[in-house]
Amino acid sequence: MASTPGWQLREGALVRELRMRDFDEAMRVLERVASCAIDYGRRPDMCISEFNHVRLSISNEHHAGFTAAELRLAAKVSATLDGERSELIQPAQPPIT
How would you label 65-83 residue by residue, b for 16+ Cβ within 10 Å and e otherwise? Predict the structure, then answer.
């Protein structure tokens, strides 16, 4: 989506998926997103799977999808995460065996 780079529209929700270096960094991302969401009065769905895969989903069940408020939150989350991208988000690495 042009106004929210990195986000996709899936089943009426704005969705962004990120792969972090490890679980600790994935948790830090959720903390940053939660802080943004509180500031904007929104409650996105957030999930960590495979210890470092973060999935964010922003929607508004009262308006069957999303409104300008959800778009603003997605833009704020993008600005927050992309501003820290070099230190937080790394290409997925194969596990060390």
Answer: ebeeebbbbbbbbbeebee
Walk me through the domains of the chain, giving residue ranges and CATH numbers.
8-85 (3.30.1360.20)
Q: What is the pLDDT of residues 35-63, one digit of tens each?
A: 999 888 888 989 999 999 999 999 877 66
The reply to whether the predicted model has a pTM over 0.85 is no
Are 33 and 44 in contact by the 8 Å Cβ rule? The answer is yes
Angle at which helices 23-40 and 68-83 pack, to 10 degrees?
140
Q: What is the CA radius of gyration of the chain?
A: 13
